[in-house]
Task: structure prediction
Amino acid sequence: MITNGTGIVAGWGDRSDSDPNGPRLLQKGDVNILTNIQCQSKHVQSNTSVNISDSHVCADTMSGGPCKGDHGGPLMTVRNGIKILIGIVSSTWNCTRSGPPRLCN
Result:
């Protein structure tokens, strides 16, 4: 299980809160992978209540996303130049960079 480092998410979800039309090209965004303790702490700071289990991988946004419509998309990390699937996007909030980390299973 990846518990810290960086990752990549990809999807067809909204690119901004004000643009409900999905993109024509597949989008990707960089994320920080957090430990579950770090993730829970950030959710408490954001006044959001979630149950984070050992099966979750927590992704904090770096360049935006995942956003509404990206559910089911991949969370990947790169090892030795190869992208490896480490999770599936299972929760999103608004498209802004601020807010609580996203959860992946």
Q: What stands out?
A: The chain has one domain: 5-12+26-104.
